[in-house]
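Quick entry between incubations.
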Amino acid sequence: MNDVDFDFQRESRQGFPEIVFGEGKSVDQLLRIAEELLEKQQNVFVTRLDPDKAAKIVSTYPDGDYDEVSRSWIYGDLSKRKREGRVALVSAGSSDRFVIDEAARTLKFLGIDSHSVQDCGVAGIHRLMNRLPELDSSDVLIVAAGFEGALPSVVGGLARQPIIAVPVSVGYGVAAGGETALRAMLTSCAAGLTVVNIDNGFGAALGAFRILNLKYGYPKS
Amino acid sequence: MNDVDFDFQRESRQGFPEIVFGEGKSVDQLLRIAEELLEKQQNVFVTRLDPDKAAKIVSTYPDGDYDEVSRSWIYGDLSKRKREGRVALVSAGSSDRFVIDEAARTLKFLGIDSHSVQDCGVAGIHRLMNRLPELDSSDVLIVAAGFEGALPSVVGGLARQPIIAVPVSVGYGVAAGGETALRAMLTSCAAGLTVVNIDNGFGAALGAFRILNLKYGYPKS
Amino acid sequence: MNDVDFDFQRESRQGFPEIVFGEGKSVDQLLRIAEELLEKQQNVFVTRLDPDKAAKIVSTYPDGDYDEVSRSWIYGDLSKRKREGRVALVSAGSSDRFVIDEAARTLKFLGIDSHSVQDCGVAGIHRLMNRLPELDSSDVLIVAAGFEGALPSVVGGLARQPIIAVPVSVGYGVAAGGETALRAMLTSCAAGLTVVNIDNGFGAALGAFRILNLKYGYPKS
Amino acid sequence: MNDVDFDFQRESRQGFPEIVFGEGKSVDQLLRIAEELLEKQQNVFVTRLDPDKAAKIVSTYPDGDYDEVSRSWIYGDLSKRKREGRVALVSAGSSDRFVIDEAARTLKFLGIDSHSVQDCGVAGIHRLMNRLPELDSSDVLIVAAGFEGALPSVVGGLARQPIIAVPVSVGYGVAAGGETALRAMLTSCAAGLTVVNIDNGFGAALGAFRILNLKYGYPKS
Amino acid sequence: MNDVDFDFQRESRQGFPEIVFGEGKSVDQLLRIAEELLEKQQNVFVTRLDPDKAAKIVSTYPDGDYDEVSRSWIYGDLSKRKREGRVALVSAGSSDRFVIDEAARTLKFLGIDSHSVQDCGVAGIHRLMNRLPELDSSDVLIVAAGFEGALPSVVGGLARQPIIAVPVSVGYGVAAGGETALRAMLTSCAAGLTVVNIDNGFGAALGAFRILNLKYGYPKS
Amino acid sequence: MNDVDFDFQRESRQGFPEIVFGEGKSVDQLLRIAEELLEKQQNVFVTRLDPDKAAKIVSTYPDGDYDEVSRSWIYGDLSKRKREGRVALVSAGSSDRFVIDEAARTLKFLGIDSHSVQDCGVAGIHRLMNRLPELDSSDVLIVAAGFEGALPSVVGGLARQPIIAVPVSVGYGVAAGGETALRAMLTSCAAGLTVVNIDNGFGAALGAFRILNLKYGYPKS
Amino acid sequence: MNDVDFDFQRESRQGFPEIVFGEGKSVDQLLRIAEELLEKQQNVFVTRLDPDKAAKIVSTYPDGDYDEVSRSWIYGDLSKRKREGRVALVSAGSSDRFVIDEAARTLKFLGIDSHSVQDCGVAGIHRLMNRLPELDSSDVLIVAAGFEGALPSVVGGLARQPIIAVPVSVGYGVAAGGETALRAMLTSCAAGLTVVNIDNGFGAALGAFRILNLKYGYPKS
Amino acid sequence: MNDVDFDFQRESRQGFPEIVFGEGKSVDQLLRIAEELLEKQQNVFVTRLDPDKAAKIVSTYPDGDYDEVSRSWIYGDLSKRKREGRVALVSAGSSDRFVIDEAARTLKFLGIDSHSVQDCGVAGIHRLMNRLPELDSSDVLIVAAGFEGALPSVVGGLARQPIIAVPVSVGYGVAAGGETALRAMLTSCAAGLTVVNIDNGFGAALGAFRILNLKYGYPKS
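Done. Structure below.
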């Protein structure tokens, strides 16, 4: 008997397949889900997969691709589906990498190009200024920051693109957990920023996908 | 002497002009700002303008357009700038009107069409199902809800468009102030939702503008 | 000397026996309580019993029944007490299993039937719609959800039964700990939902018991 | 044109009609809703209706019944629908009256009997002990309390009925707003309590309705 | 060189010596403090001493007395200082033991008698009623409770003695950490309760000491 | 019919009569309670009585004694019951007066002497040092402070008496509402402080009463 | 009799006199304090004085100087005490004026020059860049901002002076009350920022005074 | 390829070099940053470096200086840059050492003298009084405290220097995490205190640096 009722209609309904949230699922459940998807010739993408569980899954599917920083696992041939559009992943510092990389991996799974624009922290604003041309050549900006989360405000006042701000749970004291960055992004003086949950690189990538799908009109799978 | 350093470069930089946040500004300050803008042949849009202050401004500029529900004031000829694109304003009930109307007024000021899809509360889900075709014909969905803020989750699972969720400060007990709706939207299981501050119809509209500008490539003013 | 003053009168007073909360109790205390209950020919049910302590208890009582997912231990012959009534355990996803299973085990201990209706997350609403007949055949619905906790709102607008909503501490960022799901359930637009503490599958089962006892008038033990 | 999409199917779906939440609705909207309902020969019940708005509605419908303490308005002939079942409304003190009365009015609108068991605060526990027989003769107990919200815990350890606990926003300092009472009720040691939002007498009554409907099988309207 | 400036004047100023808070101090620091105190012929009492550090201290002072439940260490001859007065340590259940025992150990160090009155949880109120005579024979009541923290309210309505309520960090969901119990105790309807920090058995004992010192006029050391 | 179930047994049970909490009670309810108490030859004390309601009560009972700062009303002849014991009411500044005065009025009603020791804020510590003899001559110290609530910590390190700390809702920014002062008092390094709810001068006085009753053994009324 | 124990030694101890916090003090208390100070030939400065109370004080002291925006009252001849040093008051927008002006008034009372650098919000970063020379010519920077409070981060990365950040209670939704700005400033990536309470222009000015006093060595009064 | 965009201009812009935040950076990243800095003949200072990572770095750079209490690593010859000025590091107890030491190490790296004034807790205020001359001889006071955080208030009322208050995450119950100390410091009655993030000894040192730089006019590097 099968205890998983997977949403196989999502791709035709929304253009992107259901992606598996790895946290709180057992290795058995994950393997069963993978098996079902593969039977239907679908690629598999699992997020929030910790290294212990990943090791067991990799031993079953040795040609899958697990990435430790983003804690995500991809199985399948991604070369077939390349989509138009380009996303810039802007961040304050190297501590935000795990979130930026989750976004990058999600976009890769969806067939979309992204590039990273790192070390743009507002305490040295000239570094961001030097990177503005890189931002200008992108369709959508995903901007991640921990601590006081000020980077999206400054980017938001300079760029004209859609901006998705991602608060990161980096910092200590009142920054711990990312709530301060989240609140700062929600109350930004820069008009038209939108925000996703703390550390939600995955959600930011999907938000970007919806926007790119609107612009480029991706063919329905 | 002038004590206001208005950001007149914003429109050429970002495609939308600086909009005036009315709260915490005196009538004198607001009138001075309006005068400056009009000298430069710009239209004026003031948000969060309470009726008392509005009455004084209307008496100086009787042909301006003040709206009590959205608490916003528009001055200028909006007919010249019509832009492509269509935004659906989806809401759970009539108590969310003040937020929806702020979004609608902001879009109107920016020259963009919007239409309201009301009374879609999830406690009577069939009502939303009946309105899906209306959603399908829109480029961007702005979805507002107070109380438990569940509407964007359901819409987010059905629609493929970019969705900007707006929590509304409607409700009592633990719903008071809109924090519950905000948190629910940020943690939605529906992938790719993005969120703005509580009651921030204005910000949702600007977020939609950035997306539409990406798709339609509005000419620079 | 005995340092435990157990409430042996509860069953005659309320229809259900005192159930042992395992957290914060030492193995010694738990064994002493079990001994006392067994001397009085009562079955034993311990909740929130972590596997380390359980191992020691199982080694003393090898024919008891420990379940790892629900972290609960049952000792005694449950076949004698079967009670009327049927409870549906509705949940969004497999990450909610530990809570659903605590409810199921509690109901089993009390002699009541339950069945699980899983993978009904609101981001794929058609899955819930397909399961409505299953809900209709139940007396009481226990609905568990983590993240934004929207499932009880949707179920609450469709079903006529008593509904006990259980927030689950599944999720990250502002969902972490289950507070967001709790607040969403308390502020649901669906009328007549009632709510229990985060992860409290046990309490939800007892709430269902009180309701079934009212309907079926269980004989006093 | 009509801007309200009322859920007229709720009564046949769930056994109780849609009830109007008065807060945040204008008098015009409320009158329009009333008119629609009356055209369909339905009774009208509006909650959270403040006295100013009520005065205007009463002047249009002078034979309606507005109650200041519960801030609710009933219009229609309630004599036709009497339903079986009896609810006890238990409270700590007279400051909880506005919540208790909202529950009583809602039950009255639904055709169900209730009776009040007041002044049972736990600081004088003998008073509650004296009232136990009154509780015993009821199907469902709604127990309201502000401050530390301990009353449902004590009642929950004595009674066998379904209990719906309602935190009340009475108190000062850390009791202000009712959050302390809410949290105390959710974490009660008394098994099987369920809880509704702060001050939500309406929701408690609907919760009781669902339970009574299960027991008595009210005929579908 | 000595880097500790111990408050040796406290005993003459306040009747009780400075007691050492073990958390966050290294074993070296603790040994140095002990040495200094013993040079001055003072007994030593260390609270919040975790077992690892205790093991090292016990190996240096093998005739000291370490207690694992209360995590406290006493060194010295307590037989010389016996003081009048009697404190009852009332608690809801065995999970509160670590707090009750910290109070008991502190009182023991100060030369004061205490006795435990356990398993008085309000969900079985008859158990407390049976223990009232024990309470009556005490000068001061220390009442500890986790979860909803209702026990001090009920005791506070029955007893005439000074009552010091201690919230305990036992419980899960919204009870986790003890904040709910703390807030419930601070807002108790029972008049004249006073409260100490969460898990602060030590502080409750010192509070009792101040009261007993007032009554019995302990001789100054 | 009488809808109030007053706890007339409290005085014989606990030594102090039930005192009426005025907030949330209507003038009618208050008058009915007063009438009942006076029929039984008891004095009346109402706390948290706002001036508007007080005016109506004073017009019915012109020889009662209403105090605007403490918002309390006393009716009856207090000269008959004088009790031993002396309480010092220590405070940081004149903004704390409304709390100090509520304590003073409550003590007066109970027949106990108090005296005020004001303007002892820790930012000018010499002022407190000058007042130490006044503290020494008191049985119990009630210490009130708003803002950072540091005064009880300093007093607690100097005095040997029982100390009841009262946080006051004076201050702005993160001090607003008194929560900061409350938390500071609960976490004081000075051993043996106990704390009551924010602004709870009444509760502090009752706490002092319990202590004085222990010392002086007030005759039972 | 005098019930105020003013700290007249503060000026000789710390270089600045005690300043009167007007909130929560009655007009009578304020007049008595003023009288006492004037008898000692001291100037008077009252902060947080609302217009109603100010009107009464002005009618007694018509040559005092009340300012509505900063809600502060100065009485005395300030021309005698001019001190070296210059403070820049940097802010994001005109809504922060009430805080900036409180700082300016406090500095004026202390004999120190300040100048305002307004409209530097980070959403239009070029405006701040244009003002850098003005900042360079100042000893200390007081930087105020509401909403996401990002301005001090950017200034803190550009300027070498001591910076005192002041969060302002301007904004709505999660910005309301200034807590978000406070947290953002405390967690700034710009090193060496220090922060004062929300809206505390007064405290920022005193912080600047301490720094200037260190540099210029103001003569003791 | 180099993925780090270090802010090498900071020292010339602000007088202090960029300092490396070790948390969340991998050993590889840290080594690459060190290499780059050393190529440019700059000293290296890494904060928040846990012992595991430090061990690997020390094995590469055996002549660097790692300190376990402050968790910081210094590499380079500090003897060349000695700067004028003296900072006192005042603290309540030995549990605050890790924060005080981070400040001391940061100042050492910057070439500035500091000295520690320990064990000044307000519960034994005479100890602080004895140390006042030590404070008087310092330019800037950094005052650290956990629990109720009252020490800066008392110091702030006695000293005339600039004071930077550092809340420490020491304590349990409502003190846990340092939020109570933070809030107490922000709301201090002592005028002109400024505050940094919880446990932020580094930031306090940089704040002191800015002040000393203002006074002594350090030559630009």
